[in-house]
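In the design runs reported in the main text, the only information available to the sequence generator was the tokenized backbone. The following block is the verbatim input for one such run; it is reproduced so that readers can re-run the procedure and compare outputs position by position.
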């Protein structure tokens, strides 16, 4: 759209909404009262990922459209219905990333991140974009923590990735989740399975929904993901992959299972847990939260040994998982009410003739000492300042009054107990820096 059109469109929108420009539906603001939860969630993730040797990568939120078409796959809902795709001023087709794996694999190949070691552990945290139907309750901008172990085919990597996700969910306080595990075979054994699967569905074609008729031609395995009741009933009785696994795939799954057994991580082998795309191979897994009802998958992932080649690179066996941060926060909110934030820091108040200069110098010094500190920037009364200090949950206040200052003294007030005492101004910094936050002066 040309910029003039954009302005015209904008003014039309403004008219519709009575001059107030609102945010986009499905792309919520994360307000100051909520950001603490997000920061805490991500801090735990960074800590755990660091312990397992994962390093953060930050890729742009937009890429060439082709990357996602090839990396996610034609015929998928994401590519066909949900991508935010636009032409830039140079006429190139770009897309806001709908997921992270393709971007991460592009960056891995482009910067030869695998040069130092055959196994490279990467993670990415950030917003993803999909044009979801608003009534589905999903977000158009949502956030993921994406974790990928790139470059190694061994089952020990699979087991460690599953153990990492298990550890992470536990660290967040989501201990009650169930692990479902499956193998979806590889290039050697999946064709035979697919044939049997398609033959089964061809016989029941008339009972499938219109979408599944298309899937039957384009990508039959995706019929297993269909939410339509009739399709689900048919899928539930379809032949499953395990019976068709080749020896190598069977061995791989056996090793992953025995390693998880050794780690005492409980799982259920779910023969119907599949990934619809051809580049997915072998291990696939999902953690479910039974407390969440129907849409109860908390996080899931799997091996995708064929993706790098799909993107034009050399074979790069890899696996990983993605976690929706909104989903985790919803799960946590369903469990427990968050505690009220503790009182912290110091509010520097002034009375009467005392100028802001002294208060500002003192406040700045306290901040440099590592304290959370504030002062009144708006010339309010002492009463107004104390009200603000309470509202902002300060643990102490330091009151600068002209009479006390003439004696070199200031008043230290404990906002929790209300107790006050005079202390020498010269000692105020040291005194405040050493005060325990929860104890009474
Ligand atoms: Zn269907
Ligand atoms: Zn196989």
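Verbatim output:
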């Amino acid at each position: 759209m040309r910029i003039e059109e954009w302005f015209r469109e904008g003014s039309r929108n403004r008219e519709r909404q009575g001059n107030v420009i609102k945010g986009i539906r499905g792309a919520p603001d994360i307000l100051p009262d909520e950001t603490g939860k997000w920061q805490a969630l991500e801090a735990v993730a960074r800590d755990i990922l660091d312990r397992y040797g994962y390093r953060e990568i930050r890729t742009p939120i937009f890429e060439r459209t082709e990357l996602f078409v090839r990396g996610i796959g034609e015929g998928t809902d994401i590519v066909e219905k949900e991508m935010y795709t636009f032409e830039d001023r140079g006429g190139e087709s770009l897309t806001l990333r709908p997921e992270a794996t393709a971007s991460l694999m592009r960056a891995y190949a482009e910067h030869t991140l695998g040069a130092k070691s055959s196994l490279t552990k990467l993670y990415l945290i950030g917003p993803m974009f999909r044009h979801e139907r608003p009534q589905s309750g999903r977000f158009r901008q949502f956030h993921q923590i994406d974790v990928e172990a790139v470059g190694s085919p061994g089952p020990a990597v699979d087991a460690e990735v599953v153990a990492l996700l298990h550890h992470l969910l536990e660290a967040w306080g989501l201990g009650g989740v169930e692990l479902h595990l499956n193998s979806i075979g590889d290039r050697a054994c999946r064709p035979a399975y697919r044939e049997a699967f398609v033959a089964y569905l061809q016989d029941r074609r008339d009972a499938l929904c219109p979408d599944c008729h298309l899937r039957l031609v384009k990508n039959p395995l995706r019929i297993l993901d269909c939410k339509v009741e009739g399709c689900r009933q048919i899928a539930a009785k379809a032949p499953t992959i395990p019976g068709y696994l080749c020896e190598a795939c069977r061995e791989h799954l056996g090793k992953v299972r025995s390693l998880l057994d050794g780690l005492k991580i409980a799982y259920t082998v779910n023969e119907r847990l599949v990934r619809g795309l051809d580049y997915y191979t072998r291990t696939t897994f999902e953690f479910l939260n039974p407390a969440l009802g129907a849409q109860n998958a908390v996080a899931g992932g799997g091996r995708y040994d064929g993706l790098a080649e799909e993107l034009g690179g050399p074979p790069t066996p890899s696996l990983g998982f993605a976690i929706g941060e909104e989903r985790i926060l919803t799960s946590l909110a369903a469990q427990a009410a968050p505690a009220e934030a503790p009182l912290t820091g110091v509010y520097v108040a002034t009375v009467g003739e005392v100028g802001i200069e002294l208060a500002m110098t003192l406040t700045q010094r306290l901040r440099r000492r590592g304290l959370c500190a504030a002062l009144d920037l708006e010339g309010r009364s002492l009463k107004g300042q104390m009200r603000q200090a309470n509202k902002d949950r300060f643990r102490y206040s330091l009151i600068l009054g002209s009479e006390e200052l003439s004696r070199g003294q200031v008043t230290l007030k404990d906002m929790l107990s209300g107790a006050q005492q005079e202390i020498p101004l010269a000692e105020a910094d040291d005194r405040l820096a050493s005060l325990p936050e929860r104890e009474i002066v």
